[in-house]
Amino acid sequence: MFQLGIEPGYYESTAFPIMGYTCDFDYFQLTDIDSLGRAMTPDFSCKAHDNAGAALFVFDHLLSRWQNNPHFSRNKHSILSGKSMVYLHLKDDENHKRFEKEAKEAQLESVPEEFRAAMEFALDTTDDSMDFKALLEMDPELRLQSIERLGEQSAKKQSQLAERMDTLIPGLTDAFAGMLELTSVSMQITKLLLQGQIALKKADSVTACRQFESALALGDNSIQDVSRRCNVLLELANAQFVGGDTELAETTFQRALSDAGDILEAGMDPKPLCYAHHKYAVFLRDVASYSAAEEHFQKSFSLYAQTMEGWIAKGYSAVDSSTESYSIKEDYAKLLRCMDRSKEAAEVEAQIKNLKDQEERDQAKK
Predict the structure, then answer these.
(1) Which residues make Cβ contacts (< 8 Å) with residue 335, sequence separation at least 6?
(2) FRET partner for 317 with CA separation of 20 to 30 A, picked from 59, 252, 286, 332?
(3) Which one, of 298, 307, 285, 303, lies nearest residue 329 by Cα?
(4) Among the listed ranges 125-134, 198-207, 217-226, 294-303, which one has the minimum average pLDDT value?
(5) What residue segments make up the domains of the chain, in order of their start?
(6) What digits encode the pLDDT tens for the residues 49-65?
(7) Is the pTM of this model over 0.70?
(8) Closest residue by Cα to residue 41 from 56, 60, 61, 62
């Protein structure tokens, strides 16, 4: 139960755990901002950390301004855990361990005393299984090895945890069998994605395409899964291009753009559409469609700026947060060089240096 991130809520009249929370405004205010901080945290496939500072700002805002929310104490561990993950991505081991420890302590404090022994066992089980540092390695082979170790260790620990949970609440394991199956499918998709990346690294585009297509087949069509499907489509399109099938790659890129557009229309994160335009622009640059490439780079710049401006306006990001992405600019500068616009390229490269220098200064202040 706890490994899945599901926590019992407790009515004041009884210590018996009730799965889920009462649907009140205070709760959703708190958890929505927490979710925003997690959405801004760089994911395991992202080398750039453009949003890390914004994510820390959101978590610090929650910790300093929301103590009076009636659900704060019950959700404090989630906020601290989110902050710990940001520091992990920034490779700040000291702060990562500090907030990871505080999150564990807060989680134990959030449940009645009679349930703490089971909770502590669950947290220790997770600590034994997770190898987050290895997951952060950009090399797909190292990441795959880590995930496979994690899977083997988790299967063993999950059996022990299920026995403890069933003793506490009979039948609980059966009730969450469906969720466990979803977790298994998600792990399979991740493995296929990494196997495809490994094959592409070895110049085996045929195997890479096969693995990416298998990953797509496992995903569902819910809007919640569209973001992951969009990422897999972008990987597939790149593999098709590397394999020499430019026409098919073009079609797959269009599918990814369509999916990312659906996410934005559904009122969800614009980041997938920004990323899709960025990667499509790189493809167009590499096939010498320079004018079209520049158009999509500009769309990517605009979407990134709109996202950051929205977060600043809502108070989720610091007012001096940059609305520009140096990772997009790096690829754009290469396009300008291809177009023999050296003066403009030099200006963009100077902007990139300034953005990176500013990020280093911001991190030094924390």
Answers:
(1) 281, 285, 290, 293, 294, 297
(2) 332
(3) 298
(4) 125-134
(5) 17-110
(6) 457 777 778 788 778 77
(7) no
(8) 56
